[in-house]
Specification:
The complex is a heterodimer of chains A (225) and B (422). With 225 residues, chain A is α/β, with parallel strands linked by helices. Chain A contains eight helices and 14 strands. Helix content of chain A is 45%, strand content 24%. Chain A has a five-stranded parallel β-sheet with strand order 2-1-3-6-7, with helices on both faces. In chain A, strands 8-9-10-11 form a four-stranded antiparallel β-sheet, with helices on one face. In chain A, a hairpin with a 2-residue loop joins strand 8 and strand 9. With 422 residues, chain B is α+β, with helices and mostly antiparallel strands. Chain B contains nine helices and eleven strands. In chain B, strand 2 and strand 3 form a beta hairpin. The chains are: A alpha/beta (225), B alpha+beta (422). The interface between A and B is large, with 41 and 46 residues. Chain A: Keywords: DNA-binding, Phosphoprotein, Transcription, Transcription regulation, Two-component regulatory system.
Amino acid sequence: MKVLVVEDEQGLAESITDYMVKDGYICETAATFRDAEEKIHLYTYDCVIVDLTLPDGNGFQIIETLKRLIATTGVIIISARNALEDKLKGLEIGSDDYLTKPFHLSELNARVKSLLRRRQFGGHTEIRFQEIVVVPHTRKVFVNGQLTTLSRKEYDLLLYFLSNVDVALTKASIAEHLWGDNIDSADSFDMVYSHIKNLRRKLLEKGAADYVQSIYGIGYKFCQP
Amino acid sequence: MKLLTKTNQIYLTFSLVIYLLTALAFYQIIRLLIYDEVESRLKVERRDFETYVRKHNAWTSAPYFVENKIEVIPVSKRVPIREAFKDTLIENRYDGELIPFRQLTFYEPIHGVIHRVSIRKSLIQTYRLIEVISVAMVLFLGLLLLGMFWFQRKLSGRLWLPFYGTLARIKQFDLNNDTSLQLSKSEITEFNELNDVLQKMAAKMQQDYQSLKEFTENASHEMQTPLALINAKVEQLIQTEQLTETQTNWIESIYQASRRISRLNQGLLLLAKIENRQFSDTQSVDLSALLTEKLTDMEEVLSFKQLSINLQTTAPFAVQLPASLADSLVTNLVNNAIKHNQPNGRIELTSTADQLCLSNTGGQLISDPERLFERFKKESTGPDSVGLGLAIVRQICDSYGLHIAYRETGGIHEFCISHVLT
């Protein structure tokens, strides 16, 4: 999988690529509009992450060019601009997602994965992790071949974990992933806890190993016990 | 009360008093003059009478003396011999009407007997004179008063015209608008000075406002990227395996602080944008449906906090708002109702065509209810609140012709939105 990160803030671009590379992606970065234009003309990417405000141009133009060249490439906009018009315009010209800065790397990762899944297999691919199988297009979860009924939030939570295996996820990022940007209180962390408890219980009941590990003070990690 | 009405009122009252006093004085003077005249004529007649009596030592009512004009009565008793003027009413013998007379009474010996002599003169003509003069005077003074009043009104209306013009312009002046305050020149120096001062003030205000506006927006935008960087780096740091507990705590604090700044930043940016009226695509939004939807979305949060909902939406409450602001308004209201609730509490939504009320149970308000909508006014001291939610709600309402009121009765906190009647 090849991902292009178009972001002028060097440190942020680095963080994103580091995070992606760990997950087995091939990542390239472009810091300017001209760099980005050149790269999309030369190579093919599965997904492009674009910042809207670049020193020498506008991210919207890159998306337009990209869509003209290869319409199947997934596009995620990352921008400090959170105006509705920008979001609508972005989606209108063919981007698949819009993330407002600052965002969680884990959230970006989850969105990239879900985007690639949709793009490449029409969502008809299964996500496998040991004895857990998730079929995204039917929203069904199997553990050791047995159907496991999860609530909507538990399902979202599991998918979020599966998109970020072996990665420490903060409670805040989980809460925001499940309830959106607006849920922002100490209570939401308690809710995260209760959802994780339920998910864990349901998975254990069907004979799965305990993959959810809690990290003191930070959050949780989905990994081999 | 208007300035002109007030000055006219004072002017009118003052003139009326002065005119009344003048009329009274005038009346008295005329009366005095007439009495003086009548009395001197009475004195002349007395001299005539005395001369006649001394000459003839007798008195007969001469034919030219009309009855009642001179009355001579002998008085037996001793009376103080002095003369006196007095007003009297005498009955007219023809029609029995009482007619005012001025009478001079004196005592005169005729044939050695003291007689009381009363000489009278009718005041009927002089009374008419007084009447006519009074009426004429009242009439002319009244006309003068009315004339002065009318003139005064016209004049001051004209003189104050530039002032009212300035007032109207200031009322129309909009800080958000790019057009500067334009005031017309007048002939009056004071008004010109006033206009100059106002124009300078308005220009300064506009300039300050613009720079503040730009500053907030730029600052907010420029802050988001470094914040994203901090967040990303902290997230990377979290992935490191060999962190001690102290380090984890530090990282957690940094992470929370940066996220708080970012929320604050977004809130302030939103406020600045609403203030600057950067949202233009208003559309009709049914707030009650939107609130119901939002409450349904928050179902899990509500059940986690053991809050029950009661919806009484009898009619949709339609408002004209940009879609994103309607969402922001509703989200902030619902978040507020959830955040400041208590376990096993309630949230109630009632909506009619005129009013939309969202109420929640909760603890006593610590701060002044008047200041609840102010920026950075926090009820809880928790790190999760930045204190902008209600300020945003208020700002949206203020900017789009809505009125929001807060009420607290017996532990029920109620926020009601209604249309501002124009």
